[in-house]
Design brief:
Structural class: alpha/beta
Largest sheet: 7 strands, parallel
Strand order of the largest sheet: 8-7-6-9-10-11-12
Strand content: 5-15%
Number of strands: 12
Order of helices and strands: EHEEHEHEHHEHEEHEHEHEEHH
Distance between the termini: 26 Å
Shape: elongated
Low-confidence stretches: 314-340
Oligomer: single chain
Mean pLDDT: 91
Length: 340
């Protein structure tokens, strides 16, 4: 069995799996500091990776490396080409965190619509009369636009439908969004119709939602991003919010994480920011720890599922429910919201 390097804090269930694996040894580096795990790479045969980057130089410093397993489903911080050149598979945990991220997304939609943050601030400052402003809105009967209809987007759609929302989907590569959902062929059309926008596509490119896109939206509409920082142009979002051209925004991800304390978005009363934690419930952390470690063990036992390997074939997991390329992104099925 291999020697494994675990880079980043892991739920005890994952470490227990390594402890129980006959002949396996491991180094556990719980720090999230990007360089802390690097001295251990020369001895690594397997690598379980949280949020730290893995560059071509890092791969080159690990001559014995045979498998990299992401504690999540995204790999935008991993040099996949460098792994390909060595024939090293990159595995992800599959459909483990989609329900968790979808729940967080729905929570943010509700919190924005009901003005939860503003109401709490009002109570703390003694303004009980805030209740008479009738500021909160219902989501029943409102229109939700989901950009990116992969695993997470589909779950958000199902939850939103249960709350009585009309669900629009924008995803250029799918031919049908499924029963109860309306597929729109033009992003601008969907933006003009929606009361709530939620994005579930990978980042890494230019902003998908910029000033022009935000200008298409209703002034009473709200925006939610639990996918990747940079998908929504934050400067354009700030300008729209300050000008009253949007009613609010909820962000679990930012272009810079953690944000500077003077980030002006943090000062707006109609903005909710959570610390990139949409996929970090206790239950999900346990599932991902076990799955990411199991991928390493399965590889050395010759039974790693090809459905969980994101490279060496097409660059995305084979057989998973994927969203196709959308402007500003690639495939959501493999890469959307890698909170862990």
């Amino acid at each position: 069995m291999p020697h494994v390097v675990v880079a980043g804090k892991l739920h005890d269930a994952g470490l227990s799996l390594l402890d129980a694996a006959p002949g396996a040894t491991y180094d556990y580096i719980p720090s999230a500091e990007p360089t802390e795990y690097l001295p251990y790479l020369p001895q690594a045969e397997g690598l379980v990776l949280r949020t730290q980057p893995l560059t071509a130089a890092n791969v080159g410093s690990a001559p014995s490396l045979k498998i990299v397993s992401r504690h999540g489903v995204g790999y935008d911080a991993v040099d996949v080409d460098a792994l390909d050149r060595r024939g090293i598979p990159l595995a992800v945990v599959g459909d483990i965190n989609s329900r968790t991220v979808a729940e967080h997304t729905m929570m943010l939609i509700l919190a924005l619509s009901r003005r939860m943050a503003e109401g709490m601030v009002a109570v703390k400052r003694g303004d009980w009369a805030y209740r008479n402003a009738f500021a909160p809105r219902e989501i029943d009967g409102k229109t939700l636009l989901i950009v990116g209809h992969g695993r997470i987007g589909k779950r958000v759609g199902a939850l939103a439908s249960a709350f009585g929302m009309e669900v629009l989907v924008f995803d250029p590569a799918i031919e049908s969004a499924g029963p109860g959902f309306e597929l729109v062929s033009d992003l601008g059309t969907g933006l003009a119709q929606c009361d709530v926008l939620t994005v579930h596509v990978p980042g890494g490119g230019e902003a998908l939602i910029g000033a022009a896109e935000l200008a298409r939206m209703k002034p009473e509409a709200v925006v939610v991003n639990t996918a990747r920082g940079g998908i929504i142009d934050e400067a354009a979002l700030l300008a729209a919010l300050k000008a009253g051209r949007l009613a609010g925004a909820a962000l679990d991800v930012l272009a810079m994480e953690p944000p500077e304390v003077d980030n002006p978005l943090l000062d707006l009363p109609n903005v909710i920011v959570t610390p990139h934690c949409a996929g970090l419930t206790m239950e999900c952390a346990q599932r991902m720890a076990v799955a990411s470690v199991q991928n390493v063990l399965d590889h050395f036992e010759g039974r790693l599922s090809p459905h969980l390997v994101v490279n060496l074939r097409s660059g995305a997991p084979v057989g998973t429910a994927q969203s196709a390329t959308v402007p500003g992104g690639s495939t959501e099925g493999a890469t959307t919201n890698v909170n862990p």
